[in-house]
Amino acid sequence: MDFKRRNGGPAMGGASQAKKGKMSTEWEDSPSQFEEELALFDEMEMEAESEEGQAGHDVIPVGYCIHYTPKNQPMNTVMQASPPKATRLMKPTLTLRSGVCFVCTWKFLKLVVCGGHCLLDPTKHLRYAVCTCDGRFMVDSDVVGCCWIELPKGKYRLREERSEGQTGSKYPGKVDVAWNDLVSHPAEGEWQRIAPLRVLSFDIECAGRKGVFPEPEIDPVIQIASMVQRQGEKEPFIRTVFTLQSCASIVGSQILCFTQEKLLLQSWAEFVRTVDPDIITGYNIQNFDLPYLLNRAATLKVNVFPYLGRVWSSKSVLKDSSFQSKQMGRRENKTVNMEGRVQFDLLQVLLRDYKLRSYTLNAVSFHFLQEQKEDVQHSIITDLQNGNEQTRRRLAVYCLKDAYLPLRLLQKLMCVINYMEMARVTGVPLTYLLSRGQQIKVVSQLLRQAMKQDLVMPVVRTEGGEDYTGATVIEPEKGFVPASLMIHQSGNCVCVYRYYSVPITTLDFSSLYPSIMMAHNLCYTTLLQKSQVEKLSLSPEDFIKTPTGDLFVKSSVRKGLLPEILENLLSARKRAKAELKKETDPFKKQVLDGRQLALKISANSVYGFTGAQVGKLPCLEISQSVTGFGRQMIEQTKQHVESKYTISNGYQADAKVIYGDTDSVMVKLGVATVQEAMNLGKEAADWVSSYFVPPIKLEFEKVYYPYLLINKKRYAGLYFSSNAEHHDKMDCKGIVSSNLNLQFMSLLSEIQPIAFVLKVILYHKATFVTLLFSVQQGSENKREMRKNSNVTLGVQNIILVVLNAVTTCSTVLSHRPQKL
């Protein structure tokens, strides 16, 4: 098949292709913003082609194509992968980019490179009892997910795989190589760059029956929109719609029309194989689009359809799977094997990484992009399909937008870059990050570190057990509230707000839990039983006793595995942040930012791994010791700050810690300006840090001015971090962003906050349910509403109490809901 950039898709045999060009004049409505954007893509491509002096250029396969010419070269020498528009050079080695199939998914690697046989040293089997075959291979060969791999000269041979009706290799980049001949390059320097992975986003439309959800055994697939984009580029270079029956043209896109649904499905499958994407994405493709296509193809007996992966002989099969974690709970999903390609379902990524009020594509797009889908209701899809060319064109634009939005969201949220960097940091395949929990990432790092020290990682069977005390939360200083107002009289709801009109300094421990584990050498390999102290003849200087009574040897006796892992992660993050400051290329900056974020998340997850009672390797002694040290340090910080910064020591006021949570404290130093609060905050952080064991460090983080404290984990304020003259943002924690809440939060920037609250209530006529309530009242109302959806909230009056934390004055606002 011949792909051209401007055409954006293949010229399918047996399909009628709608001509690209002017928009049909028969369509009465003016073009939507999305249609104008598609037309702009086409104009940009035409300008680029004109500048290059050509009508179009061939699409270069991602990861750069590996070419081999038997007539010109011996078997052990091939052309190195070369970038688009570059001259191909003769090289004695073969470099496989991260876009090449078996770097993306290790099931492909196992089938093709390992051939399904165990190539590992049998003496190492014990170490890998907790790991899969894929993970064993990666650890032994020092390969990490999404890395660059080099095959030395003479250590490989090209494979020619023929399928029925073909005379040559389907994928000329396949090679056979011994597992121990792979050269894996660490993600540093020139090997830190990311290959231009080819990302295919698609969406399907089905002609359902009225009031019935589409069923693949009955309802046909009427359109499939596909967009292909290279990672790092801004626009998709392929924009194609496969449609049943004729369809009017769309500027900037290719329309392929089919008279039979069977031909449509067959052609789209061939399109996927020819485009050869590294990543397949979309919205809910895992549980709807892909299963529907496979089941529909089976119903119509399209036998060639399910071969969607890079292994020609491997059939894509639909299976049920379940996933359970503390973060996401239990989820039932569908899985489709597609060797050599990563299925990057955007919905699953958002469910895993973001807490949103709604996860529909429309809501998500508006939340992150301030864009929405095309205006087509699901109830009229079948009617549009049964109409004419123009109605089907409207449906095609709708379908194209649904395929385009996931690409925009991936780019906006940097999902692919962040996940690839996480795979590199933790050493697991990219697919594991989407289908597995958090623990597999720590297991991979433990295995690699254990291998260096010739240690065996045991298998621990657990079913839950004893719990332990978590982090400290210092009670917030909410001030005095009249007793009469604290009584919830019949029909009244009391909302109490604590308002600080002076700067509040926030001091934060840098990587608190990882630094505790490093400072005190907390690890599986350093844990001592009390009976072992005498047996090993250890002196008190050789070990420490944690606040929870557990014993660990010091690093001078034995350095633990976990502290070494954490040191490597945090030092790598420090290097990445230093490079980020120097880098000027926007795309490289995104990669470095994704890397430092992955390193931070990975370091913080080590503590959680030890505390997971139903996990791979739980250790209560470590987790409870970490939180014990954390509680102790928060209390010590409070004592140190309040004892030093006093009037008797020459300061303007007596400092007061008004709130503290896990790894930070919020201090009222009694100064009048943000700059003074910043200066004292930095001084206090350095002074308090001198009392703790390195690398534990307390840092100045920010100043809130003014500051609204509602309850534990519920506060808001104007955020100052570097510039004392201008705030960085409005920071809200634990507060629902309803319209009134946003208006209510604006009181923080008002000279007279009490008057502003009254203005909001009286003049904006807010409804009762949009107001902020106390935690107790809100919980009670929710429980009642869950029990009986018809129940009404019997609240007669709303009482808001706004307290000034400096003057201790309070203002009471009381109104009836029907008057608001």
From TrEMBL:
InterPro entries: DNA-dir_DNA_pol_B (IPR006172), DNA-dir_DNA_pol_B_CS (IPR017964), DNA-dir_DNA_pol_B_exonuc (IPR006133), DNA-dir_DNA_pol_B_multi_dom (IPR006134), DNA/RNA_pol_sf (IPR043502), DNA_pol_palm_dom_sf (IPR023211), DNA_pol_type-B (IPR050240), RNaseH-like_sf (IPR012337). Its EC number is 2.7.7.7. GO terms for biological process: base-excision repair, gap-filling; DNA replication proofreading; nucleotide-excision repair, DNA gap filling. It is found in: Nucleus. SMART domains: POLBc (SM00486). Pfam families: DNA_pol_B, DNA_pol_B_exo1. Residues 1-32 are annotated as: Disordered. The chain crosses the membrane at residues 754-773, 794-813. Residues 428-482, 499-735 form the DNA-directed DNA polymerase family B multifunctional domain. Residues 136-364 form the DNA-directed DNA polymerase family B exonuclease domain. Keywords: DNA excision, DNA replication, DNA-binding, DNA-directed DNA polymerase, Exonuclease, Hydrolase, Membrane, Metal-binding, Nuclease, Nucleotidyltransferase, Nucleus, Transferase, Transmembrane, Transmembrane helix. It catalyses: DNA(n) + a 2'-deoxyribonucleoside 5'-triphosphate = DNA(n+1) + diphosphate. GO terms for cellular component: delta DNA polymerase complex. The keyword Magnesium does not apply. One of its GO terms (molecular function) is DNA binding. The keyword Ribonucleoprotein does not apply. It comes from the Eukaryota. Belongs to the DNA polymerase type-B family. This is DNA polymerase.
